[in-house]
């Protein structure tokens, strides 16, 4: 029986995912589902936010009627914060979550995470970033030590691949075809490591004492 393997992905987008306090006991099942859905978990931590920290995190919601209940709910116990990565991570995570109102999610998206684990519009079990820019802000909030490098998108991403990735990969595949090794995957991996154009170059200066 032939196994169907997913096509390799270049993880060019990240999003923040929160498992909220009322479903923290389901963390193991939820993490397994996230991984099986094609996400890579780059960062993960368990923490408990104070009401003030919750207010800062949800600052865009300040002034709305549900805001006090939201901050009270989010600070009521520990939560799990994760940085998820995959192609179109923001939109795929939102799709996996379903509508923000868990009652509505059970009607329209019964297989979504909020339909399965959520209770209502407030206690909806999960958080997901709304956009790439909000994901960057929220990731910095939950993981202040993480370094977020600018991620090229659109034409910039294509230019980067054409300039920095494809030439090296093409040269490696050409060498692989000529060499015809018994273990092509390992051979190509070793070749790419050896010919990595971004590999640091150390210049060794020969002193006069070493010459003698």
UniProtKB/TrEMBL annotation:
A Pfam family recorded for this sequence? Dpy-30
Q: What is this protein called?
A: Nucleoside diphosphate kinase homolog 5
Q: Which GO terms describe its cellular component?
A: cilium
- Describe its assembly: Component of the axonemal radial spoke complex 1 (RS1), at least composed of spoke head proteins RSPH1, RSPH3, RSPH9 and the cilia-specific component RSPH4A or sperm-specific component RSPH6A, spoke stalk proteins RSPH14, DNAJB13, DYDC1, ROPN1L and NME5, and the anchor protein IQUB. Interacts with IQUB.
Which keywords does the record carry?
Answer: Cell projection, Cilium, Cytoplasm, Cytoskeleton, Developmental protein, Differentiation, Flagellum, Hydrolase, Kinase, Spermatogenesis, Transferase
Q: Which SUPFAM superfamilies match?
A: Nucleoside diphosphate kinase, NDK (SSF54919)
Q: Is Cytoplasm among this UniProt entry's keywords? A: yes
